[in-house]
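Each field is set out as follows.
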Amino acid sequence: MTRKKRSPEVLQQTLEHLFYEFWMLNSLTQAMMSGVCGQDALNNSILESFTLHARALLDFLYAEEPKADDVIAEDYFDTPADWLTARPNKTELLGAIHKRVGKEIAHLTYARLEVIAEEKQWQFAQIANEMNAVFDTFLTSVAKEKLAKVEVHHQVHDGNA
């Protein structure tokens, strides 16, 4: 099914939300890396927030079955296949996000019983680094006029979590 083409104005309006997701992903990564949140409920809530932002960004960058109103990276390209060609292959770590968030965070599932202690750890810094690398590819691949606001917002990360 062909997606509805979005106007440059609408694409510009979505940038605020897109950059918010990346800002949150990176800010939460830094908070967890600092250890300031300890190992209790506060740390868990920050990790849970991180995973939800990671999943939202994964769905933007690697849309598999987007809904008609989902904002996806392809929307920013005159030829959507250009993004599919430019983006890096999804890493194993990024590929596991959607299912893990669904089974371990967003839904109460029996699958949680099967997750061993070593698998419960989230490699949040590595996830952020890999996500930022894909986002940087997006920023360098999309037509600059579609990202006029990027100069202000791209300062939210330096490519490293």
